[in-house]
Amino acid sequence: MAIVAVSLWVSLSGGRVHADLSDEGKRPDPSSDDALVGVQVKEALDAARQQLESGETTETLPFADGSDWVRTTSGEWARGSIDWMREDVMSFDSDEFGELEINMREVAEVHAARTNTYLLDDRSRLIGFAMITTDKLAVQTEEGIVVRERDELWSIVEGGGPEIDYWSVVLDVGLGMNRGNSNQADLNLRFGLNREGKRTLAEVDYILNLGFADRELNVSRHVVPFTNRVWLTRIWFVEPIAGQLLSDRFQDIRFRAQPAATAGLRFLNIPSRALWDLSVGFGYEYLRLFDPLIGTRNPQHDGLARFQTRARFDFTPDVSFIFSWVTNLIFTTIGNTNHTGIAELLFEVTNVLNLQATFMYFRTEEPHPREDGTLPAKNDYFFTIGVSLRLG
C-alpha cells in the first residue's frame, strides 16, 4: 500500500506590532556595526538594572536598538525577535541561528525592544517594550514603566494583544492508495482551530476519514474533539467543557455527543524535554444509531466518566513524540464504553518542513448490532506517513 500525506500548519498570529510607546531617540535603528550595537545593548541593560535596583526609574527604558536580544547564563548573546514564551521555554527567532527554544533557566537577561504581551500569574497582562533581568521584569507600557518580579511572568505572546494574535489554524491532509487484487483509496483530513489566551487554551478539531474499495464507500467517519482549558496554577487546571462529537456510518453511529467537565494536573514538566497531563471528570453521552436492531433504545442517554492523558516528549530539538488517550467509561450502559488514541512522531527537517507519522485508534467495547443482525467491529484504526509544512 502506498500512503501519502501532506499537512499544512498556518499561524494567524499577525505581524509584529511596533507601538510607539517611547521617544524614538531612546530606540535608535540597529547599527550596521553589530559589535557596536551589542555594546550598546549591554550598556542599556546595565542602566536598566541599576534603575531597577535603586527603585528610581526614568520615564522610558534605555533601549539600545529596535531588536530583541537575549543573553544566556553562559554569556552568549542572540539577536532577533521573541516569538513566544510559555511553560518556561522561550521561542526566539535569531537573525544568525534561526529558530531557538531556550529554557528560561538559561536566560540571564532580555532586551525586548518590540511590543509584546506579558502575562502574569495574577492573570493581569502588560503590553509594551520590556527589560528582563535575573529577578525583575520591567515593561514600558502606554501608562508608564511597570516593574514586577520575574517569577511572576507566566508567558509572553508576540505583539500587542489584538485578538488575532491568540489564534492559529491547523490543516492536515492524508491520501492512501492500494492497487492490485483490490483497489482501495483513503482520504484523511484534519482541520483544527486553536486559541491560546492569558490563562486559557481552547482547541477544536474536525477529523474526516473516508475510504473507497473498488469505488464503493467503506469508511465514513467524522470526529470533532474539543476542549477549553483554564490554568489555575502552573500545575493545576480545569476544563469546563471537553469532549467529542462523532458520526461513523460503518460503526452504525449516526451521532454521538460526549460533553464533559474535567480537572487535571501537569505531573511532568521538563522544559524542552517532556510534558505530561492527566485529567478526569464526568459528563453525558447522547447516542443515536443509524439502523439499530429492533428493540434497541434509540436514542440513548447515559452518564460517563472521562479519563484523559496527553504527553509530549522532545527526544532532540528535531524529533518529538505526541500522544493522547481518552477513555469514556459509560457507567449506565457499560458496553458503550469507548476509547480514542492518537500518536504522532514528528521529524523537523527545517523550520518549515517536517516529516510525520500518525496513528489513530478507536474502540467501542460492545458495538450495537445493526438491523440485519451484523455486528460492527470493536476496533478501528489507521496509520499515515507524511509531510508537514509550517508557515508563519
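(ticket continues) Second input and output from the same batch:
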Amino acid sequence: MSIDRSRKADRHLAPYAVNERQSRGRLVPETPSPTRRLYARDRDRILHSTAFRRLTHKTQVFIYHEGDHYRTRLTHSLEVAQIARSMARTLRVDEDLTEALALAHDLGHPPFGHAGERALDRAIAEEGGFDHNAQSLRVVTELERKYARFDGLNLAWETLEGLVKHNGPLHAGDATHPIPRPIADYCRRQDLALDSFASVEAQLAALADDIAYNNHDVDDGYRAGLFTFADLAEVPLAGRALAQVRAAYPDLEGTRALYETTRRLITALIDDAVAETHRRLERLSPISADDVRLAGHPVVAFSASMSKDLDALRAFLAARVYRHPRVERIMGDAESIVTDLFAHYRDDPEALPPEWREQAPTTGYPRYVCDFIAGMTDRYALAEHRRLFDATPELR
C-alpha cells in the first residue's frame, strides 16, 4: 500500500487511535505488504493459524458433543470480533487491530476451558503456573511454526501489547496478580511496556469479550434447560430486555423470544459502553494513543449503573450455569482428564507423538508438556486419554 493510500485510509481515525505509521514494528523486520495494512496482515495471520482452527473443538461452557448449537471457543471469538469491530468503527479507532485482538484473545485456552486451565496451572505450579493469556502470547510468538524466518506469527508490537494487556497493566512485584512467567520471559526479548494501559483498540476487544460471553451464555444456558424465562425475569438487566420483548410480542415464546431478548441485551450494553467511553475520552482529551496508555485508568468502560447490572447478570450465570451441578460434574471429570494426561506425558515422554517426542527439550520439559496439552482440542484430549488409560469419563 502506498504512503498516500495509507494516509487516506487513516483520515477517519480519531487522534487517540493507534496509527500504523507510528507502529513500533515487528520483532523480525519484514517488507510491508503492498495490498494489506499492518494490522490487517496480523489479523489474517491469526485467522490462518493452526491454533485458531483448533478453537472449533474447544469448550466455551458446554462440551462439543453436547449439542451442535452451543458456542465453542471459535464461535465465541467470532462473536467478540463482530462486537469489537462495530464499536471500533463507532469510536473511530483501527478496526483491523481491534479485530485481530478479538480473534486472538483465546488462542491460548486449553481443552475444556477453565477446567483445563485449572488442571494445567496446578500441574506446572513450580514452573510459574499456567495462564491462558500468557499462553496466547506463547502461541503467537513461539508455538506457531510455519514461517521460514521466525517462530510464531511475528505480529506487530501493538498487537502483542494488546494481547497481554487487554485486561489492564501488569505490575512487577504484585503478589496478588504476578506477571505470568511466559510474559515476563518474552518481555526480555521485546519490551511490551507492561506497566501502562493498552490502546483503545485492546480495551474494546476486552469489553467486547464481556458483552459476548454474558449474552451467549444466557442463550446457551436457556437452551440447555438450566433456567427459565421466569428465572431470567428476576435479573434486572435481562429482565428489562425480556419485558420489552413481552410488550412488543406478547405471544412470542421459545428461541425466538430468547433471541429477541439477547439482541436487546447486546444493544443496551454496546450503547452504554460507547456513551461512557465517549465521556471518558472527552474528559481525557487524548491527542495520541500514548495518552490513552498513560491515562492511569481504562477509557473503555461501562457506566457505573450498567456495571452494577452486569455484575448481577454475572452472578446469575455463575449460580445457574457455571456452578450448575451438571456443568460442575462434567468440568470436574474434564479437569481429571487433563491432570491424567499431564502426569502420563511427564513421566513417560515416549507417550508423546513422534514429532513432539523428537523435539522434547532437556530443560523446561514440564512447560513443553503443558504446551502440547494446551494445544489439544477437547476431542483430541479425550482420544488421547482413551489411548493411554483403561477408563475415560464420558463428559455427559
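Agent notes: The chain has a mean pLDDT of 95. The two ends are 52 Å apart (CA to CA). Closing as not reproducible unless the customer responds.
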